[in-house]
Automatic annotation (TrEMBL), chain A:
InterPro entries: CitD, Mal_deCO2ase/Cit_lyase_ACP. The lineage of its organism: Bacteria, Bacillati, Bacillota, Bacilli, Lactobacillales. Covalent carrier of the coenzyme of citrate lyase. The keyword Phosphoprotein applies. Its main location: cytoplasm. NCBIfam families: citD, PRK13253.1. This is Citrate lyase acyl carrier protein. GO terms for molecular function: citrate (pro-3S)-lyase activity. Belongs to the CitD family. It is found in: Cytoplasm.
């Protein structure tokens, strides 16, 4: 799936994560900010990367501001941001998840 | 969370009293007029506990009462609501100017500080940042070995005075970047000013004209409504401008020289020049070049704008490169219409 424009999903409230996804031309880059980055940083990044891979996003710039989100929340916010950024909110590909 | 209609007198009064209780005291017409939308959060008792506004892509008038909230939660809620509001309008690159003591709070939610002074800080967040901006500016393959100079100008419009400054820099350096301030608050639009600088320097092959983006923010438009006195505001604005240039822009382009025109008339610009010299040294050498004169007069863009208003452009022909003069001749009625509509021709 191709990222066509910048999109944002999520909030900065406790237990949530704010994800901004924008266009890129050389793979996936993730800029993660989290109070629990030392312990869970790799885990958070891998959830974002897996979700991007499942939706076949090859090039994207991701900015993530985590406020202690669980994996299911991270996944949900990533899917929402990708679909907005790829302008596919009307035709979601649920089956790949 | 709801949109506040500040046009409603009762809503405005409560909003203003709330912010005043938090130490924000400037509610001047020209600041308020720039606000696009304002959000507010109320508690169960119906009183305002948090608010924030957006003006273009700048967050303003953010105020949070933490008396009843778990550490910072109202703040995070109001900022993410403002960012989602901006996102609906496809604005993802967001700036905030704030008191120094709140810089940490913004950094905690993904903002990066561009510069700060004792009085305040400027931060940005979103899908692009100052590194991307510097990265997009064209560079020479051997740039690290070159002596690189810079000029920041509004060029409203580009005169022979500007041209003289560029020529001085071009003669003494390998490469010169001319950054054109991109605030659309001038008689000539950003696109027009950029095009006229480009046209007026096209024959100088070591000069690169660049849009100053939002990082060469002219001191004209730095919001400083949270500072009590005009003098503090000027010092704060100019110091921030100098520090962003020195720390975030110049290193990536190997800029070591900056050229300024001497400022005999405007007190504000005079202060600006002094602050720049103090802040940029020693990494960047500042050269102040005396203003060029034509027919015994110092050239200023202000006089050119006045001549346009008075319909006497022939009187300033000697001040202008042919490219600028022809542009004014061709678009005289458009420019005059802008002045009639209330575009100010004074200031910068």
């Amino acid at each position: 799936m191709e990222i066509k424009k910048t999109a944002i999903a999520g909030t900065l409230e406790s237990s949530d994560i704010q994800l901004t996804i924008s266009k890129a031309d050389n793979g996936i880059s993730i800029d993660l900010q989290s109070d629990v980055k030392k312990v869970f940083g790799d885990q958070i990044e891998s959830v974002i990367k897996d979700t991007l891979a499942k939706l076949d996003v090859k090039d994207a710039k991701v900015k993530a501001v985590d406020k202690g989100a669980l994996d299911c929340v991270i996944k949900a916010r990533t899917i929402a941001a990708i679909q907005r950024a790829a302008e596919t909110t009307d035709t979601p590909e649920w089956e790949v998840l | 969370m709801q949109l506040l209609n500040l046009k409603d007198r009762e809503v405005f009064r409560e909003w203003k009293e709330f912010l005043e209780s938090l130490g924000i005291s400037n509610f001047q017409e020209n600041e308020l007029a720039q606000i696009d939308s304002t959000l507010g959060m109320y508690n169960d008792a119906g009183s305002l506990v948090a608010t924030g506004s957006v003006a273009g892509n700048v967050l303003k008038y953010v105020g949070v009462c933490n008396k009843f909230s778990v550490h910072g939660s109202h703040f995070n809620t109001i900022i993410s609501s403002l960012m989602n509001l901006l996102a609906q309008n496809d604005i993802f690159h967001v700036f905030v100017f704030t008191k120094l003591k709140y810089s940490q709070s913004f950094q905690h939610i993904g903002f990066n500080e561009l510069a700060h002074t004792d009085l305040g800080a400027i931060l940005e967040t979103g899908d692009t940042d100052v590194k991307d901006y510097v990265h997009r500016i064209p560079q020479q393959p051997n740039q690290v070995d070159l002596q690189v100079a810079s000029i920041v100008m509004n060029a409203n419009p580009f005169t022979l005075g500007h041209r003289y400054l560029v020529e001085q820099a071009a003669a003494a350096n390998d490469l010169v970047y001319v950054f054109v301030v991109s605030d659309d608050v001038s008689l000539f639009s950003t696109t027009e000013r950029l095009a006229l600088v480009q046209a007026g320097t096209a024959d100088l092959n070591n000069v690169v004209v660049v849009n100053g983006g939002q990082y060469m923010v002219s001191y004209v438009t730095f919001p400083a409504y949270f500072l009590p006195t005009p003098d503090e505001a000027i010092t704060y604005q100019t110091t921030l401008d100098a520090r962003i240039f020195k720390n975030a822009i110049a290193p990536g382009l190997n800029i070591t020289q900056r050229y300024l025109g001497s400022e005999p008339f405007s007190r504000t610009t005079g202060i600006y020049n002094q602050v720049l010299q103090k802040e940029l040294a020693p990494a960047i050498t500042v050269h102040v070049v005396d203003r060029k004169q034509a027919s015994g007069q110092v050239i200023t863009a202000t006089q050119v704008r006045e001549a346009i208003a008075q319909n006497e452009i022939a009187t300033v022909q000697d001040f202008l490169p042919a490219t600028t003069y022809q542009f004014i001749q061709k678009h005289l009625t458009t420019l005059q219409a802008r002045i009639q509509k209330g575009m100010t021709i004074h200031g910068n």
